[in-house]
Protein: Alanine--tRNA ligase
Amino acid sequence: MMTANEIRDSYKKYFESKGHAIVPSAPMVVKDDPTLMFTNAGMNQWKDIILGTRDPEPRRRADSQKCLRVSGKHNDLEEVGHDTYHHTMFEMLGNWSFGDYFKEGAIDMAWEYLVDVLKINPADLYVTVFEGDEKEGLVRDDEAAGYWMKHVPADHIINGNKHDNFWEMGDTGPCGPCSEIHLDSRTSEEKARTPGRELVNKDNPQVIEIWNIVFMQYERKADGHLEPLSMNVIDTGMGFERLVRAIQGKNSNYDTDIFQPIIKEICRLSGKEYGKEEETDVAMRVIADHLRAVAFSIADGQLPSNAKAGYVIRRILRRAVRYAYTFLDQKEAFMFKLLPVLIREMGSSYPELPGQRELIGRVIKEEEDSFLRTLDKGISMLTDAVDALKAEGKTVLDGSKAFRLFDTYGFPLDLTELICREAGIEVDENRFNVEMEAQKARARNAAQVENGDWNTVGDFDINEEQKFVGYDFSEYNCHITRYRMVKQKKNTFYELVLDNTPFYGEMGGQVGEQGVLVSESETVAIIDSKRENGQTVHIVKELPKNMEAEFMACVDIDKRDASAANHTATHLLDYALKQVLGDHVEQKGSYVSPDTLRFDFAHFEKVSDEQLREVERIVNSMIREDIHQQEHRDTPIEEAKKLGAIALFGEKYGDKVRVIQFGPSVEFCGGMHATSTGRIGMLKILSEASVAAGIRRIEAATGKNWEERCYVMEDTIKDIKALFNNAKDLHTAIEKFISENADLKKQVESFKAQQVERLKTALVEKGHHATDGTTVINTVISMDAAAAKDLVFKIREAVPEKLICVIGAESQGKPSLNIMLSDDIVATGLNAGKLVREAAKLIQGGGGGQPHFAQAGGKNADGLHEACNKVLELIKQAQ
Ligand SMILES: [Zn+2]
Structure:
């Protein structure tokens, strides 16, 4: 039986033998497409070729693409694991032809691969063809059917409708009919009972679609009509997990050797068995599936976080932790221990996994640890709530409480319900759902962006290709080719596409450029620019009055130069960090604007001050050398690697790349750069800190920005010096000041102690000595609360018996009321704590204490006399 790895390899080998370039999977995490967070189909990475904005060479390609889906009919995250064939992450085998072979070649190769290489019995295969659609004016795809006739009998060819057999990229753009290949893997008795053709596309788990071949041959125009596509495209997709299940003759994807090694390791570590109980089986499937999704995302540079793609990854990981916690009894981090098995199984096909073994393990473990702490906190809060309900004799937990647990602590409803059920308590689920809906609505309103339709200008085509000239020019003649309106919250602005543009749109951490569009009659400010489908989109607040005019697009040069210098500085920083810390330092993100730069990189401990200094010295000496930029544009990727450029994990590279070199610093980069390193002026690291497990962040200032900071620092030091009478040696002067201050403090303390001592003697002497021998002290003095406390304790030492002492003290407008009673007085039933609470009302305050001593603070110092008298009055009443 072929293993999963053998099946994947056989696919690549077969298509390589048919002249296809075998390309690496694009990253699963999409970085530069605002409409897509994760690659969800094999064709995502070829969108620009299909749309005609990128060179199609080589025209035959094949790969196995990692994909992630967390929403959709069968990929709702909460469903994954409950059945045996849906996943978050999956692999898609695909072969493409961009204007090379078409229907016949695609059909012949698919057939040959399945029947001759994988040895599938042809009698078990069924194919579908598009039956045509009258409304579209399309006839049946007889051409495809004709080619299929070479391989299968007519009763194995099934007509399919527009819904199943006509593929479209979007509302407009490339589209065409498709053919699916279905595999019937039922037993021969079942096949004899019902012919396979009756079960195609009928949701029978044993008769499944394994391959979809799309014949892109039309282009849908904005008005809905179809035109022939300028270049025919073949786009095929074969779900790897279900193919392996079919070839290995299993009933469940999780029974194939894609998942079994992971599941066996889960069994070994948890001491549980797979296939015994539904609950534990679901948990194991969830963990096995989610481990893949999380590990591959981290390998592609997407760390768990609170926003966007990072949040999706966090949710996936937490779901797995929750299942491990609840059903496999794993109360400590567990998933990271499965990583070695995943790497052993998939590492040879996906080198990004072993390449980042340590980082992935650390990130998963840290996420697990922190979520488990959250779970613990949530459980103890929930236990308190359950105890309180029980004490009140109630049996239903308020749903909004359950929602708060979910919202603040990520504490899932099913776990809340489980814990409550054990205590015989129900959760008001309706209330929970109401709160959940309300929150979703809030989130929707906050994120609302409305995009209008693209409008063409003049006789430009909607797909008009844009020429980016920014590497060579900062001003260029241009026309607006299309525009649309965008509404975000209450703001309205417009996006413009130009035929030629020098503007570098936001990409790869470098912010978008600003500038102006100038025509003979008007000037329009471009407030930002970004990238969409490989093109720069220019953002303006108002549309030009004459859209069809000829414009000059002018980039704000000062900002461009400052950004470019900062971008170059990140390259030098990257180089220097590798020199000082080692080759494991890999860029994990950056942010470059005219004012600032930020650089994130993989490293597992704090970078020491000396190391940071060394990095700065290397960078600054490269800046002083004024190394000139060497740009290698449109360089074949293999040649670029020879230059020493290191490809980053999680980045997508074309066949031709741009390499930016400054002496020994060589990087793949599409960004704007300084013409020479001297333009940076100087680099100073401002901070170094951890942003996530295994990821450090450096923030730095360069050139003018650093110069400004120097002035601020200089002024601060000047001011301080002036405070110290322009002392020559500021350090010694400050030290002297500190020690003098400490001495003075000591003296003040000792004066205070003496004052307390003197007051004690005076008060005891002057106190009222009643006939029964009780000493009663009642006075108001100027003193802070701490000293007053000290004083009353000293008085008690001097008069250990028959003492009633009430002292009102005031310092800087703050009153305190102090009561001290000797133990024999307390024994008569008096309580200083109770007395102070009652009397403190007169100073608008409160306090408390023990039976023998109590203190209260307040706001109204004028009430002190009255308060003291009140205490004595209360005592009299009690006696
Ligand atoms: Zn760069």
